[in-house]
């Protein structure tokens, strides 16, 4: 799905489309039909799912026709993402077979309502007489067809519908019409209720799953043990374990009773699970466990989960609710991290100093102390703490980073304050992200050719903007804020603004020179949100104070306007990222006479779970196909904006035997970054600036969309076809086709890039005229 925003629009926009619609991220849900009789079985199913797959937490759709409020409360207590949906009993009145008062038949008909779900791309049905014993990763990764286990007793051409993995092409009105027509005609066998209707429609056309995903109890007759590789055990038959069970199946029923737990025992069992625990489940089960027990280690885990999700105040609250012994270093460190993230710096310092007493936590604690000192502008103190961290662990990367930052001698300002503009930006480290490294200079080029300290006073967004900083800014001609995705809650969290600039309202209100917000982006990922009211309050004040408020795409404009009162909407305008018009801004720019016969590939791995979901293996396999296909025409190289971006080359070599040359762009200066992108024929990039920078120097692009901002940019330039979702089923073939098409019509595509760029340049020039008036120039 692609949405195009009108270029240059400054009036109110319709609400932005959902992030999932823009990124194409596959939405997965489980589903069950539940009634009061089978409620004990469903509760055991939910417990088994969490304990067997502790890192999995998808929506769970509960189809029901009459559940009591108390039953719903029990269900919600066992899963944080329950979606209740009533089924329509009247829908099946005209079916010709079966006793409608018989539970099994009613359940069979009602479960067919799962095919009327339209909110998900993949739905996995589970019967309430099942328990999950093993990893369901294979089911979550399925992307095609309707998958099920063939019936054990009734032939391989029929499925057992207790477990279905249903893809979007079956979640349609057309398929539901087929089910309804078959159900009303009676032209099916009712041997296994809903299986009869479904089998009649499918006629054996389904994806066969291994029996371990729907291992029926009847296979264990004679009290046989449950096979070790069983992933889902299905208690078929009339006698259910919670109803007294059935003779001859004691080992299977003992397995079920292992999940018939009290809430306290279940919470404790989940928190003791090995492997990565899902944030939502950890918080959902861990919070009541901490309230009940005061368990410090559990409180640390829950707080760490809150921090990972950007819920810093919740992390403070849960750890502050328990008594932390003086020698419990890890909880002190996590509490210190949470406190510094909400700008309670003195309390954080005390907690982190306690954490330095344990050798296994000292390096991290010292690094956080160094970070806080640097945030407060105390480089000497920051260097002292960072050095202490390195002395504990010479390989500690974060301590080395803060030592490098603290030891860097800032450039000496050359101009007089009255001639300078102050510039709030994220100034990237030497080996930092190449795109972020280029941004501050490119923003300055939009205000004139001189980007040095003669004309500019640098204000690092992540340093605390205190009274001294305010005084320095007010001595300048004006304040520019940008560019980049500064509206993101977790890159360098603080409690003063809840976005990247660490400024409290009091200091923001005290700025008395013109404020110009220039090409800032709203950078929340699909699945990430700003939960703090603090961000909205800071944002509103910033818009009110700004003489110019320009966001870099219309998607960001829509998101920000939704957080503002109506009277401020028209203050928010479109200002493209200046990297997209670099050819117009860089002094003396000339397009390359010759280009290298290369295609550059960039992939990003920060917040990989939000980018890929369950689809990373699919993405990697499809990229391997594309690299081979494109590689038949020209050489493909890996362009790494950051150290982590090199992972695509490692994974392709390990998993698919493909070796790519790696270009370490994080080591490049700004001229080298632009030059590399200008001399290649095509850039396939996942990072925002792996699209905007090459576009800005006149090079064709294809964006691998894993973040809404990629789709926002392509909509602004009216070229959505230059983007492909990382979740696209046929990613490899589509990417190869589009890349080869661009290479074959290269001159025409370059001309199109230039034409698209002219549209953005006109907006930039019009805004520049307004900025000159604001500054009195």
TrEMBL record:
InterPro entries: Glyco_trans_8 (IPR002495), GNT1/Glycosyltrans_8 (IPR050587), Nucleotide-diphossugar_trans (IPR029044), Polysacch_pyruvyl_Trfase (IPR007345), TPR-like_helical_dom_sf (IPR011990). Residues 479-705 form the Polysaccharide pyruvyl transferase domain. It holds the Pfam family Glyco_transf_8. The keyword Zinc does not apply. Gene3D superfamilies: Spore Coat Polysaccharide Biosynthesis Protein SpsA, Chain A, Tetratricopeptide repeat domain. Keywords: Transferase. GO terms for molecular function: glycosyltransferase activity. PANTHER family: GLYCOGENIN SUBFAMILY MEMBER. This is Polysaccharide pyruvyl transferase. It comes from Streptomyces caelestis.
């Amino acid at each position: 799905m692609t949405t195009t925003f009108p270029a240059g629009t400054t009036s109110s926009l319709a609400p932005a489309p959902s992030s999932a619609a823009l990124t194409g991220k596959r939405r997965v849900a489980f589903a069950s039909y539940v009634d009061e009789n089978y409620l004990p079985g469903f509760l055991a199913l939910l417990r088994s799912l969490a304990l067997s797959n502790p890192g999995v937490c998808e929506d769970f759709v509960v189809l029901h026709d009459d559940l009591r409020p108390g039953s719903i409360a029990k269900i919600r207590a066992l899963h944080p993402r329950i979606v209740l949906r009533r089924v329509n009993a009247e829908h099946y009145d005209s079916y010709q077979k079966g006793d409608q008062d018989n539970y099994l038949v009613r359940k069979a008909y009602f479960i067919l309502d799962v095919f009327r779900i339209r909110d998900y791309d993949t739905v996995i049905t589970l019967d309430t007489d099942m328990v999950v014993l093993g990893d369901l990763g294979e089911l979550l990764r399925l992307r095609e067809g309707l998958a099920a286990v063939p019936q054990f007793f009734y032939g391989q051409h029929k499925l057992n519908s207790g477990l279905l993995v249903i893809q979007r092409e079956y979640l349609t009105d057309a398929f539901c019409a087929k089910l309804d027509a078959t159900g009303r005609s009676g032209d099916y066998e009712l041997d296994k209720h809903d299986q009869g209707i479904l089998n009649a429609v499918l006629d054996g056309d389904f994806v066969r799953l291994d029996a371990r995903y729907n291992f029926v109890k009847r296979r264990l007759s004679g009290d046989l043990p449950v096979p070790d590789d069983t992933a889902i055990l299905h208690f078929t038959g009339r006698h259910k374990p919670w109803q007294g069970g059935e003779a001859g199946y004691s080992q299977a029923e003992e397995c079920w009773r292992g999940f018939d737990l009290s809430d306290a025992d279940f919470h404790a069992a989940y928190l003791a699970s090995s492997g990565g625990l899902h944030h939502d489940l950890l918080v959902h089960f861990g919070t009541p466990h901490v309230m009940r027990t005061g368990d410090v280690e559990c409180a640390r885990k829950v707080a760490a989960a809150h921090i990972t999700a950007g819920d810093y105040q919740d992390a403070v609250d849960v750890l502050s609710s328990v008594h932390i012994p003086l020698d419990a270093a890890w909880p002190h460190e996590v509490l210190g991290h949470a406190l510094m993230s909400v700008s309670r710096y003195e309390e954080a310092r005390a907690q982190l100093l306690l954490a330095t007493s344990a050798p296994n936590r000292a390096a991290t604690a010292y690094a956080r102390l160094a970070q806080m000192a640097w945030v407060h502008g105390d480089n000497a103190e920051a260097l002292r703490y960072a050095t202490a961290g390195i002395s504990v662990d010479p390989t500690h990367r974060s301590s080395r980073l803060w030592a490098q930052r603290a030891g860097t001698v800032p450039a000496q300002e050359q101009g007089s304050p009255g001639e300078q503009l102050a510039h709030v930006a994220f100034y990237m480290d030497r080996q930092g992200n190449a795109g972020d490294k280029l941004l501050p200079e490119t923003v300055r080029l939009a205000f004139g050719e001189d980007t040095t300290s003669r004309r500019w006073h640098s204000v690092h967004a992540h340093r605390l903007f205190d009274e001294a900083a305010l005084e320095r800014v007010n001595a300048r001609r004006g304040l520019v804020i940008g560019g980049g995705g500064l509206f993101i809650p977790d890159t360098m969290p603080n409690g003063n603004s809840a976005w990247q600039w660490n400024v409290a309202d009091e200091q923001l209100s005290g700025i008395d020179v013109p404020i110009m917000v220039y090409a800032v982006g709203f950078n929340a990922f699909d699945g990430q949100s700003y939960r703090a009211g603090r961000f909205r309050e800071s944002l509103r004040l910033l818009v009110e104070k700004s003489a110019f408020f320009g966001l870099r795409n219309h998607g960001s404009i829509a998101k920000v306007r939704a957080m503002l009162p109506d009277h401020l909407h028209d203050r928010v305008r479109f200002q493209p990222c200046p990297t997209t018009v670099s050819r117009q801004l860089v002094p003396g720019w000339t397009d390359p006479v010759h280009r290298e016969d290369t295609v550059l590939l960039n992939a990003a791995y920060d917040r990989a779970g939000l980018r890929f979901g369950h689809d990373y293996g699919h993405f990697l396999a499809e990229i391997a196909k594309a690299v081979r296909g494109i590689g038949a025409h020209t050489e493909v190289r890996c362009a790494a904006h950051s150290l982590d971006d090199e992972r695509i080359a490692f994974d392709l070599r390990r998993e698919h035997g493909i070796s790519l040359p790696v270009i370490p762009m994080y080591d490049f200066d700004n001229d080298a970054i632009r030059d590399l992108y200008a001399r290649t024929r095509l850039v396939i990039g996942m990072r925002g600036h792996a699209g905007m920078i090459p576009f800005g120097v006149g090079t064709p692009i294809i964006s691998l969309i894993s973040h809404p901002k990629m789709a926002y940019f392509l909509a602004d330039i009216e070229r959505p076809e230059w983007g492909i979702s990382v979740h696209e089923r046929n990613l490899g073939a589509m990417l190869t086709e589009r890349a080869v098409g661009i290479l074959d019509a290269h001159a025409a595509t370059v001309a199109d890039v230039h034409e698209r760029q002219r549209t953005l340049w006109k907006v930039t020039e019009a805004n520049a005229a307004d900025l000159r008036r604001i500054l009195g120039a």
